[in-house]
Specification:
This protein is about 60% helix and about 0% strand. It is an all-alpha fold. It folds into two domains: about 1-60, no CATH class; about 60-135, no CATH class.
Length: about 150
């Protein structure tokens, strides 16, 4: 993934929101970045600004990919060998998420709301530091097209 591709996905998302969810942009769209280097590149930052998206700093507490999605994906793929076969790996990842019911993703959103409230409550300190037993979407590029299709 490079910055140009990421920027194109952001512009497609912006266009889809304009077409299908009128008024959403005026209320504000907040992207929750993970810690991928591509999110920090000037071209990506420019696309975020052009689309008038809010893009707060990375926080593992507020990144569904960190506390929810990828931990479950890692469990599902544990022990599988892909022998440098990118297509086989991509297919396994896509299947993992395609097999999930809508409630799976809704739970991730509910956890995000709870974690945001907790983060405000503890004045920005790390949620995991405050609550070590806390139950573990940044918009991920793999889901970007699915998101656009579903809007």
């Amino acid at each position: 993934m490079n910055a140009a591709y990421y920027a194109s996905i952001l512009h497609k998302l912006c266009d889809a929101i304009k077409q299908k969810k009128r008024g959403m942009l005026s209320r504000g769209v907040c992207l929750l970045p993970d810690n991928a280097p591509v999110h920090k590149v000037a071209a990506a930052k420019a696309a975020v600004k052009e689309c008038d998206f809010k893009h707060p700093p990375y926080s593992p507490d507020l990144s569904p990919s960190d506390y929810y999605l990828f931990s479950k994906l890692k469990k599902d793929l544990r022990g599988k060998k892909f022998d440098n076969d990118e297509e086989e790996f991509k297919t396994a990842v896509m299947k993992h998420f395609a097999d999930k019911e809508p409630e799976y993703f809704l739970k991730g959103k509910e956890l995000l709301v709870h974690r945001c409230e907790k983060c405000v409550e503890i004045k920005g300190d790390y949620v995991e530091k405050q609550q070590s037993c806390f139950i573990s979407v940044t918009l991920k590029i793999w889901s970007g097209q699915k998101l656009l299709d579903e809007m």
